[in-house]
Design goal:
alpha/beta, TIM Barrel, five-stranded parallel beta sheet, four-stranded mixed beta sheet, 10 helices, 39% helix, globular, binds zinc ion
């Protein structure tokens, strides 16, 4: 049996004028990126029979219902959320070449960011959302924010994917950061599923957006570590990064083919179910 587990999560988040920050990306991104991506990624996963999770910004659910329904019906996707409209939930102060500073949303505006996508996915698709990826991810995830974990609990989400930066508020995140329960904070039923290594956008911005070949080599190296050490890796790609310099998703195809060989692929929710079933501490 394969030891390592790969959870592929696509953050589907294109909001023209805001997400991604085109100044940061250094080029313009087509406005119809989300629609194009959802169609292509469904076909690819159906063909290769690899499961993945789509983390959808709630404000784009209504205009993509047929495409999301097709993803749901394919049986290869979990559909979860990436908040309502992609604002930073915690403040980011990057110690990186870019010195990014993103002030976190005021507390009184956080609840609706988590609540509204839950309603929207239920209303349009009959989907019970069980997890959230928080925009930009943070050092220590929500370990220092029980006030936000309370919203995660209130809306019946059972995992968060929010730990995706190291103590420099940047990448990479160490492999030692493995999924953990928010027990100390008083939320023993909520699982953190961290994004380790580099977020795709960070690595690719530093090394060149067109440099897919080197990025793919890096991904394969990480997969070898995951397989060798029996780790869990949540990998992130985005709608816009996946299509950037690769409209046919050829490099994503190569990633999925390599993943099929090397590791076990699960949706985030399936991984949560497994962790929950094998727990001995509660
Ligand atoms: Zn995002």
């Amino acid at each position: 049996m394969k030891k390592g587990v790969l959870l592929i999560g696509y953050d589907v988040e294109r909001i023209p004028g805001r997400v991604p920050g085109e100044k940061w990306v250094g080029r313009s991104i087509p406005e119809n990126t989300t629609a194009v991506f959802l169609e292509k990624i469904r076909r690819l996963h159906e063909e290769l029979e690899v499961p993945a999770t789509i983390f959808m910004v709630g404000c784009n659910v209504a205009q993509n219902v047929p495409a999301l329904a097709a993803c749901r019906d394919s049986g290869w996707f979990e559909i979860a959320q990436h908040t309502w409209s992609h604002y930073p939930i915690k403040t980011i102060v990057e110690d990186s070449p870019y010195k990014v500073f993103l002030p976190g949303l005021p507390f009184e505006k956080i609840e609706e960011q988590i609540a509204r996508p839950v309603e929207e996915l239920q209303k349009h698709l009959g989907i019970t959302c069980t997890g959230v990826t928080l925009p930009y991810c943070y050092y220590r995830g929500l370990a220092d924010r029980p006030d936000i974990l309370a919203f995660v609990r209130k809306y019946n989400l059972h995992y968060v994917r929010s730990y995706g930066r190291n103590h420099h508020d940047y990448g990479p995140v160490s492999w030692d950061v493995q999924p953990f329960w928010y027990e100390r904070q008083g939320f023993p039923e909520i699982l953190e599923i961290p994004i380790q290594g580099w977020m795709d956008a960070q690595w690719r911005k530093e090394h060149g957006w067109e440099n897919w070949s080197a990025y793919h080599d890096w991904l394969k190296e990480q997969m070898a570590v995951v397989a060798e050490r029996g780790l869990c890796w949540s990998h992130v790609q985005h709608d816009w990064t996946s299509l950037l310099e690769d409209e046919s998703l050829e490099w994503t195809r190569r990633l999925l083919l390599a993943a099929r060989e090397k590791v076990e692929c699960l949706t985030h929710d399936a991984f949560y179910q497994r962790m929950s079933a094998t727990r001995s501490d509660v």
